[in-house]
User: What shape does this take?
Amino acid sequence: MNFGLVAHRLHRLGPDCALLRWARLCEPGLRQLALQLHATGGAHDTLVINDLLRNQLVSVGHGRDGGLMRLVSRAAGGLSPQTALNGVFFFIDPVNPTSMYPETQALKRQCVIHGKPFVATLAGAIEWVAVELVCAGLTENPVPQSQQSWALESQVVALVAHDALKHDMMAFASEHFDTLSRFAGRVATGTTGKQLNAMAWSMGWPASQNWVTCYQSGPLGGDAQIAELVLDRRCQKVIFFEDPHVARQHEADIQLLDRSVYSAGDVTTCINTPAMARRWALAMSLVGMP
Assistant: This one.
């Protein structure tokens, strides 16, 4: 497997930065996966200086030399099968102006279009290495620090889907109803939440109880309401099925929710495509209940 690797300056400075914490925790698992990391200059150099993952790094150059643009191409399939990416780890600092550059937005968009993981937080990067290990059948408890990821009973999940993907969200929630019901709570934006409650009631959830707490619809502020929950550490996972093919009048609200996840990246994970969600759910089923 090939994954892109990018880290904003905040996350690669200092001995306890997010990039180094992740690399130290996950190095054994990354070796088991034989995962090649196509790393931009800053991330590559930080790992080499600290003698981490040296044999698994492929340099794509610094951002100023087009390194991030190369990853966009490789997320879309690249110039050869050997360089195509299976996903991207991107440690994002939400106040770094490059988080809004076209390259960054395009990289996420290509991952979403092609159903590939775009993992943008420390908690998410630890969890996703564990997901890949479990799905590969390599170990039952792959990264000890990922145990919190499996403790759904202490977490709240947000379920958000744009209009074109609401059907996919309903199908995913129905298929994995038991797993999602393990969460301590579920929240959703307005229309998606109403549909999810109707689905849950049809599957035997008590009709007197909402399966999800509904906030406003996205254009009316629901994304912002869920963002506040994330910032308060009251929502630890966001499953957000985005439609990358349409212009969205409330794009700022969508970006706000993304950026709240990045701000709470030590405890919050985000899943952004149905394919990514199903792979996560598969790992959950293989690990089983604690």
